[in-house]
Amino acid sequence: MFTTNIPADFLHDESRRIGSAAGIAFPKSTADVQAALQSAHMQGSSVTVQGARTGIAGGAVPDNDLIISLARMNHIISPVAVTKVGEYTITVQPGLLLSELQDHLKNVDISSVPLSTSPLIFPPDPTEASASIGGMTACNASGACSFAYGATRKHIKGITVILANGDSLTLKRGENFATGRTFEIITDQGNEITGKLPQYNAPTVKSAAGYWIKPDMELIDLFIGSEGTLGIITEIELALTPAPAELTGIICFFSRESQTVDFVNQLRTQSSEVAAQLNAIEYFNEGALNLIHASAPKTGLLLPKGSQNWKNAIYIEWAQSNSLSGEHLILVSQLMQSCGASADDTWLASDAPGLKRMKAFRHAVPEQVNSIISERKRKYPELTKLGTDLSVPDSQLQAVMNLYHTGLQAASLEYVIFGHIGDNHVHVNIIPRNMEEYATGKALYTQWAKQVVEWGGSVSAEHGIGTLKKELLAVMYGNEQIQAMRELKALFDPSFMLNPNRLFEAEI
Ligand SMILES: Cc1cc2nc3c(=O)[nH]c(=O)nc-3n(C[C@H](O)[C@H](O)[C@H](O)COP(=O)(O)OP(=O)(O)OC[C@H]3O[C@@H](n4cnc5c(N)ncnc54)[C@H](O)[C@@H]3O)c2cc1C
Asked: Domain of 90?
């Protein structure tokens, strides 16, 4: 079941932390997962669960234990089906990659799907299409288009979860609810689990920090986003959405950041008809644009002429039924002008190759940051990037941008800022040049987290807590609620065998 022949790639994830493991298993079915857990239990070992290891919070990095990799559980279990008018689903194994799902959906003959007239998509897209569907579910991943579509949770209709003792839970959306803050679940084997939910409520901003808790909540939501600490997800029923008829990508360039925030706020307060067509609103600061410039020889991504004068950019993805009317372009021009920018400073794409280039543009920034960090790690092996994942309410957008710039400039740190400004959730990537800068950046990050929590925000909007952000989860919820999370885990995993020390320390 477990082999000691562990390929080096399975000892790390995209956080670039390297762990160690005593063995690895590659189950192909739910029954194999149950057998692997039983074997780990008999060996008295804890288990690290792995999807595609694209996570950046260190959750999939083994900790001298046994790895259960879901890489070979990558099949489609049930093809695209219609459950009722306008509701389409597909059921997959957790190791299926997002890119594989996307390719599969592109090739589905839509005429063979009853009642469907347009191609179907699975909207969550954490930029990194090599993420697995199981990993995305375990982390409640989101991405640029979550501005329109919400995070992964919203698109999950059902899951099968294997608990530490090998029992399975089949959870369907709309079927299992907590009563207030108490709950009762019966496993497929007929065993009853009853308990209490912690006292906190998940924030209203975008959040993937800790267990998602609400009174009377759907119990499926406890497992979505639980980062493999409550059970291993082995089957996932996904809700599919009809693809928009037309997409336009527009990158708007600005010479001042205040113009950028103003532009975003104006976009967000347009009529509900306009808002419904906005898929994504993404931000790039000057450092991010410089990185795209610098990487051009490698990526072939050349910014348009005039870019040397631009300090920030906003990428907007527009989904509309008729791009030819051009109304959205007129609106963008008007808004840019009203923010004091020139409507000529835009880059437009409406065909597939153009949109692909824009996607590469967005992906280039985190990839470049990761490769700089890999280079610096040669001299400082302990060095990692410090990537923030904080979100705030709409009203605090300008304040949070000021907070970041002031702190970073005062500390003279190298950094880029990019990401999901439409959700008030940008990633500051501090790129330390040495371990002193790393320590300074880390202190700054904790300081920001405290402020963001005071504003009603989240310490992790999408990447999750993993092993690297446990202190921040404590900042958000406090030690008493962390203890309540520990007690909740113990109900499903009494010996803390599954992904121990993720989200919080197994022991106080
Ligand atoms: C360049 C880059 C950009 C990214 N951008 C985004 C972004 O925009 N938004 C975003 O949300 N994320 C982003 N990510 C992070 C990452 O892609 C997501 O967190 C993704 O959901 C992880 O999926 P994975 O399959 O790689 O999971 P892994 O990294 O393998 O695992 C992540 C966690 O989930 C657990 N897990 C995995 N599979 C299961 C399962 N089947 N059952 C139970 N637990 C499981 C693991 O134990 C671990 O704790 C980015 C990463 C990179 C490298």
From this structure: 76-242
**Looking at the structure, do residues 33 and 129 belong to the same domain, yes or no?**
no
Residue ranges in 269-307 assigned as alpha helix (H):
272-275, 286-294, 296-299
Same domain, 176 and 312: no
Is the residue at 196 inside a domain?
Answer: yes
Domain CATH number, residue 156? 3.30.465.10
Rounded Cα distance between 24 and 472, Å, is 30
CA of 377 to the centre of ligand 1 (A): 22
Residue 170: is its pLDDT beyond 90? yes
397 lines ligand 1 (CB under 6 A): no
Q: Is 359 in the pocket of ligand 1 (CB under 6 A)?
A: no
Contact call for residues 464 and 55 (beta carbons, < 8 A): yes
Q: What is the pTM of this model?
A: 0.93
Instruction: State residue 127's pLDDT score.
Output: 82
Whether the pLDDT of residue 36 is over 80: the answer is yes
- Tell me: do 60 and 96 sit in the same domain: no
Nearest protein Cα to ligand 1, atom 16: 55
Total domain count for the chain? 3
CB of 280 within 6 A of ligand 1: the answer is no
Task: State whether the beta carbon of 497 lies less than 6 angstroms from ligand 1.
Answer: no
Nearest to 224 by CA among 295, 107, 314, 133: 133
> DSSP 3-state helix, strand, coil percentages of the chain (rounded to 5)?
35, 25, 40
Residue 468 placed within a domain: no
Identify the helix (H) or strand (E) that includes residue 251: strand 246-254
The whole-angstrom separation of Cα 223 and Cα 371 is 33
Q: Is ligand 1 within 6 A of the CB of residue 52? A: yes
Separation of CA 126 and ligand 1 centre (Å)? 8
- Out of 39, 54, 69, a domain closes at 69
Would you say residue 408 lies in a domain? yes
Assigned domain for 429 exists? yes
Ligand 1 in reach of 124 Cβ (< 6 A): no
My answer on whether 393 and 309 are in the same domain is yes
Interval 306-319 mean pLDDT:
85
